[in-house]
Amino acid sequence: MSMRIEPPRGLFNLHLGELWAYRELLYFFVWRDVKVRYKQTLVGVLWVVIQPLMTMGVFTIFFGRLAKLPSEGLPYPVFYFTALVPWVYFATALANCTNTVVANQQMITKVYFPRLVLPLAAVCSGLLDFVIGLVVMITMALVFGIHVTATVMLLPLFLILALLTALGVGLWTSALNALYRDVASIIPFSIQFWMLASPVAYPSSLVPARWRWLYGLNPMAGVIDGFRWALTGHGQPPSAQMVASTAMVAVVLVGGLFFFQRIEGTVADRV
Amino acid sequence: MSTAVIRAEGLGKRYRRGMAETRGTLRDALTNFARAPLAALRRPKQEVFWALKDVSLEVRDGEVLGLIGRNGAGKTTLLKILSRITRPTTGWGEIRGRVRSLLEVGTGFHGELSGRENTYLSGSILGMSKREIDRKFDEIVAFAEIEKFIDTPVKHYSSGMYVRLAFAVAAHLEPEILLVDEVLAVGDINFQKKCLGKMGEVARGGRTIVLVSHQMNAMRRMCHRVVWIDDGQVRQNGNTHEVVNVYEAAMSKDGEAPLGSRVGDHSRGYFTGWEIIGPENTSPHLLDSVRPVTVRFTLKLPERIKRGKHGIALFNAERQLLWGWAAYELDLEAGLHDFIYRFPLLPLKPGIYTWNVSFWDREELIDWGDLTPEFHVAIPSFQHSLDVWSGLLNLPSEFTVHSRSTALTSRPSG
After folding, report:
1. What is the residue range of B352's domain?
2. A31, A45, A106, B27: least CB-packed within 10 angstroms?
3. In Å, how far is B35's CA from the nearest CA of chain A?
């Protein structure tokens, strides 16, 4: 085993083989995040369910009962909860990912590991929460008498798309955050705007047809519609838009990997 | 002849001055770009400095290499480049083998997690596999002496327990090449000794080690070769004793003699300093050969003291008292007084020592504390090469064998 030490150069030099060698560290980072999150809370795992359930309640009262927004023929709680499970996962993953390099700067300046492990761990550590949310979501669908079909098997695909979106954007924001701390202030309200631009509180059928193409570029629109459809059979099935948004994610992700590895070599000096 | 496992050619590292302290904000970057879009694309003209300049070195398989130099000389930067924490600006290097680095104790520890969980986390961050940690877990806990608290969150640990566990994890790394920075300066004296022992074991285990430390005694004991880094460049590279002696001599010349942390009523008198005197002497604070030594301590008194009392003590770097003595009923006029000690022999190991002196007017303390600069001893070692058998004294001895009877020499004694 031999390795070279040299100044950062080259446009694309990802060392994916090395990343594989560090897969156990990825596991330990995820394990740490999960442990620490549940360690000091009184109700522990319940928080994972309470937060989207409360949001669901608020949405049901204000957007549903008061504003009377359409819900694709679904009961309001199901309509909102099917969107909130993927959305909360995505929003948390992106926020964690943005902070991960800064939050681990002590470690970064003292020991070497492929820095890419950090954003990867950040987007993976929410998966347990997601699975718990998913169980509640399916239970709720059954309680409301929704006929769950085989399309539910497609859920993992939408999850992967959500994960890659969070990772793609998170690679950019985590690297930028290490260089410019302002990013940490921009991200939280950007995520709020992003939620308004996704069919969480309203159905995407409300979007005027001539703006659909633009709306479709938002990968989370496809993810959330996809979740609703896969679980309940209602709402918008995946369309050609999904191809566009997947391509969009690919572009952001590859660009993010490129940008992240550019700063990786010297981030210890700059963070 | 063993092969080079670390090779570095012309390594250099440039920093922008204050890069770490003043981080740019996005606004600055954007306004700069708005003002002069082209200039922003070019390399920024900021004040730069080279933390490391054109450093080349080679470390052979199984060698223990020490890096010495004053603070900010570039030792840590070099270690960070070799361990790939950051990349060099110029030059290149090549490393053959599994490298692990220890730049601090407790990398990756998390206060909310238990000792057990942190052992796995920190071990993994330092480069151990889960199986490796499983296998060594009991040994690590025993080494740290925290069996009872292994499932307590480390935020409830005393700082001593924390450091012991953290070091125990690090001490059980089994790399082919280990890069270590000053982590030995932790914990209480006994645990430090244990750590030094463990490091020594590792070093004797044939592993390649690059070690940064300010403890010259440790360097002398462990290193095969020393590189002195000064102002980002290699100043000297060679035999441990040679380089360390030259380094210590250079450092003690730069020393000054402030009152420092001494206590007492200094308005009534104080020691102005100390030095080795005599014609054979080359440096006032360095002893570099075995010979009689005369040491002068100067006391300044603004007024007469009739029943003065004077104490003296010699400490080693581990703060062990090596020798103490006192004089009573001294009647001294106002002025400067030289207290002269003549030692026929000072059988001290190479290293740094401290003179601790005091002066009293009966029971009233006038001046007491450590004198600066420290006392550097660079006598060759006449001791056993194994630490456990080297002992406290560096006694020169003449050894001969006189065989008197052939009949007796062939019989082993019971």
Report:
1. 256-383
2. B27
3. 19
